[in-house]
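FORM 12-B: Structure-to-Sequence Request
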């Protein structure tokens, strides 16, 4: 779990470094190369983190042990593979303020970490699986890993969008 905490922290720090220097106009600017603004990408990450936290909580409460196979979740880092976000994680249209999104991301991460820190038996996250819309039955540890991989993917997307400013 310590590795997860480190990866979550490092990934979030990189995201915040990319967006904190933007003004609200840049943050909300739309580009032909992307259907979402940088602000909307961040709002999607916020919604995704909240959904993942709820999925992890659900799995921990149900405590249904599963022999779910590990999935090749690293594929999310391949930007040539396109995904349609599930409707539930699509961002609002905005506009958003940089400071508002940073605050919401901080609050969301605190809630996630509250869940993770309360897991007494760390091995349980490998034994409980919850259905993921893209990967099917996914062990909880892979949900955690997928969260920071997904954020890394979108941080790279933000870098690409910033280059268009």
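FORM 12-B RESPONSE
SEQUENCE OUT:
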């Amino acid at each position: 779990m310590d590795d997860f905490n480190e990866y979550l922290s490092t990934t979030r720090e990189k995201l915040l470094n990319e967006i904190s220097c933007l003004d609200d106009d840049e943050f909300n600017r739309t580009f032909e190369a992307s259907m979402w603004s940088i602000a909307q990408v961040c709002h999607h990450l916020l919604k995704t983190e909240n959904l993942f936290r709820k999925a992890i909580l659900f799995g921990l409460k149900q405590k249904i042990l599963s022999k779910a196979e590990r999935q090749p979740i690293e594929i999310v880092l391949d930007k040539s593979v396109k995904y349609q976000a599930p409707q539930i994680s699509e961002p609002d249209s905005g506009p958003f303020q940089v400071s508002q999104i940073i605050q919401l991301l901080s609050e969301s991460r605190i809630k996630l970490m509250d869940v993770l820190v309360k897991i007494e038996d760390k091995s349980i996250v490998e034994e409980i699986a919850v259905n993921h819309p893209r990967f099917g039955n996914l062990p909880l540890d892979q949900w955690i890993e997928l969260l920071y991989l997904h954020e890394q993917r979108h941080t790279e997307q933000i870098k690409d969008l910033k280059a268009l400013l």
